[in-house]
Design goal:
The chain has 111 residues and is an alpha/beta fold. The strands form 2 sheets. It has a 4-stranded mixed β-sheet with strand order 1-4-3-2, covered by helices on one side. It has a 4-stranded mixed β-sheet with strand order 5-8-7-6, with helices on one face. It has a single domain, classed as Roll (2,3-Dihydroxybiphenyl 1,2-Dioxygenase, domain 1), CATH 3.10.180.
Length: 111
Amino acid sequence: MRDSQIAHVHVFVSDRPAAVEWLMTVWEAEPVAEDHEMSLFIFGSTQLVINDVTDDIPSTVAFTSANCDRDYRDVVARGAVSVEAPKDMPWGVRAAFVQGPGKLTFEIEQP
């Protein structure tokens, strides 16, 4: 399985319509499929599935960025709440964090 790639990741929120609206507004993403219990977004070769649950489950969704500072400013300008402004991390990347819907955190990471 070492050569395999992640196809999709599920995250779980108690208010999926609000999470979809947040992704559409803040991340400028559109769902490509929806049904009574999930919404599907595609980011490059990875799919993000937003599922309904009774109680929010904490998770972090990380995105690569060519310009962490610019992308952080853009999502905050579109309504994201900052958790941590861009800074250089000891493991060799520049990263920023914003509060997503429910208990989700969204990370912007620049190699």
